[in-house]
Amino acid sequence: MDTGIPYAKLENDKVFTALDAARVWGLKRNGWQVHATGGSQHVIGDTTYWWHGEERGGDPAKPFVIAQFTLSGWGFFEQGGTRYRIGAGEGFLAVVPSAHLYYLPAASPDWRFLWLDVWHPYAVSRLTGIRNRFGPKLSAPADSDVMCRMIAILQRLAFDQYPDDYALEEDLLRFVVQLERQMMQTRYPVASRDTLLREVRDLVHARFPHPLSVGEVARHYRKSRTRFSQIFKKTTGLAPAHFMETIRLAAAANRLESGNDKLEVIARAVGYRSATQFCKAFRKIYAFSPGAYRSYYVRKV
């Protein structure tokens, strides 16, 4: 991966002071779609730095997203009645237009940051999903892949290094996916998450052909159903009932791929009362009926 200018050298580098508007003009000059633009800013003791998300224009039907990351100093981001302090190694996502506010407070001596304005519809949808799932505040360590990818995008924009708009689109989508991965790993540490998922998966398999309830799993951990569900969601980001059903359906999918058992047999084997109940649950997760799923794998063989 081309990481561009190292993060540590940005403090004294002037590359990222180019105006956002100049980048838009450069992209349009080449006849490309404006998937993203960005730059940097250093606000020093200026309490007039104040942006409201409903006063920046924008079309509610075609919103864009601001991804902003702090290099040094700090500022405030407010949304939904909550105020977030955004310091070094942190950032925020803001959908425009929407009711949010970010600014340099009088208590902060300065705020230096990078930003990326994202216009690509699919990327906007994914970033909005990240904000909705994890909240607007982001974790962005200096040595993270997210920062490397963002810096690479800004460098290539600054030096007009994109050969076509597909290259910018590809970099942008990689950035979005990496940000989602990083937020997932930050919020739900891999070791703890994987351990709990593996343990519950083994419990579900051990009870086949009988279905295992969340309450029974909670008792295994000597917790109430409510408390266990809270712990499971906090550790994994998933609802236990949904996860347990995906395990049952994955086991059913394996049987569909490798055998010719009737649907009623497979349904009973993974804990469903009937083929009808099984088919409804399977289609909801896999977007195929069990029969269509099996036919697909038969054709592949």
* Radius of gyration, taken over Cα atoms and rounded to an integer in Å: 24 Å
What is the ordering of alpha helices and beta strands?
HEEEEEEEEHEHHHHHHHHH
Task: Please describe the biggest sheet, giving its number of strands, its sense, and whether it closes into a barrel.
Answer: 5 strands, antiparallel
Helix count, per DSSP? 11
Share of helix among residues?
A: 40-55%
Order of adjacent strands in the largest pleated sheet: 1-8-3-6-9
Q: Give the strand content.
A: 15-25%
Low-confidence stretches: 1-8, 10-19
Q: Overall mean pLDDT score?
A: 88
Quantity of strands, as a count? 9
Shape assignment = elongated
N- and C-termini, Cα separation: 37 Å
Q: What class would the helix/strand composition place it in?
A: alpha+beta
List the helices and strands and how they pair.
Blueprint: H1 20-29, E1 36-44, E2 50-52, E3 64-73, E4 75-79, E5 82-86, E6 90-96, E7 100-103, E8 110-118, H2 121-134, E9 137-139, H3 145-158, H4 165-187, H5 190-207, H6 214-220, H7 225-236, H8 240-258, H9 263-269, H10 275-286, H11 290-300
Antiparallel strand pairs: 1-8, 2-7, 3-6, 3-8, 4-5, 4-7, 6-9
Helix pairs in contact: 2-4, 3-4, 5-8, 6-7, 9-10
